[in-house]
Design a protein that fits this description.
The protein has 10 helices and 8 strands. By secondary structure, the protein is α/β, with parallel strands linked by helices. A 3-stranded parallel β-sheet has the order 3-4-5.
Length: 258
């Protein structure tokens, strides 16, 4: 958190730490880099949740319950291929309390890296749209981190969103961590999720600095190549805007407080 605040202070207005949807929309209008504070794994929050409100006051607006390992809140899926996400028990009592507390504060609960039983516990408890920030279709690539069709249906039913990961090991049908995975493989996952869930519930999830991504994208500068590939597959400009930003804005607006 302190590093994000330092980055904002030293950016001369080029970076803004956003806490509300209005602030985020303002950054987009002014072409300012908007930073949303997120925890990938809730280890920084104590099991009694005493730190949560203090972190919220500092700008925290999104919490991933687990990374791919167990913690005080639940069980993350280990990286396995081929494998089901149905690995381990559900959320702990602290994890269920964290979901409810995040709902009350207006913090996104991110179900990426969470096992299947934890996912279903969160789906039953949460009053907010379900969010999986970076994952892909288990039907196309049977990795433990990817979402099954019934999980995709639950996210759509909640009016939530799945961010498509760019991690090649989650995209490739053979699970290989090969940067030469073609852009068409990523597009195939997007098309599959859109067909299963509807366009309103799919977005870009990336994970640009956390894994191997297709060399065809490379880094953030490669997004136009993905958008061009989607245009070639029949996604018009309005559909591409929804995938790139508008679906995220809708879900954040339904979750965050003003």
């Amino acid at each position: 958190l302190e590093e994000a605040q330092r980055l904002e202070a030293e950016s001369n207005g080029a970076v803004t730490l956003v806490r509300t949807l209005d602030e985020l929309r303002d950054c987009l209008a002014r072409q300012v880099l908007a930073v949303v504070l997120h925890l990938e794994g809730a280890e920084a929050i104590d099991a009694g949740l005493r730190r949560l409100e203090g972190l919220y006051a500092q700008g925290l607006r999104s919490v991933g319950l687990t990374w791919s390992r167990p913690n005080a809140f639940g069980w993350g899926v280990p990286f396995k291929f081929p494998a089901t996400p149905d690995i381990g028990p559900g959320l702990t009592a602290a994890g269920k309390s964290l979901v409810r507390a995040c709902n009350d504060l207006g913090v996104v609960v991110d179900l990426a890296h969470l096992n299947a039983r934890g996912f279903w516990d969160a789906a039953r408890i949460s009053r907010a749209p379900l969010v999986v920030s970076h994952s892909a279709a288990h039907a196309l690539a049977p990795r433990s981190r990817n979402l099954t069709d019934d999980q995709l249906a639950a996210v759509a039913e909640s009016q939530g969103v799945v961010g498509i990961t760019f991690a090649v090991s989650d995209l490739a049908p053979d699970g290989r961590r090969d940067g030469d995975v073609p852009l068409e493989t990523l597009v195939a996952h997007i098309e599959y999720l859109v067909a299963r869930m509807g366009l309103d519930h799919v977005a870009f999830g990336s994970d640009l600095d956390g894994t191997t991504i297709p060399r065809a994208i490379g880094d953030a500068a490669g997004f136009p190549r993905l958008l061009a590939a989607l245009a070639e597959r029949g996604f018009d400009a309005a559909a591409r805007r929804r995938l790139a930003r508008e679906n995220w804005l809708r879900v954040l607006g339904a979750t965050w407080r003003s």
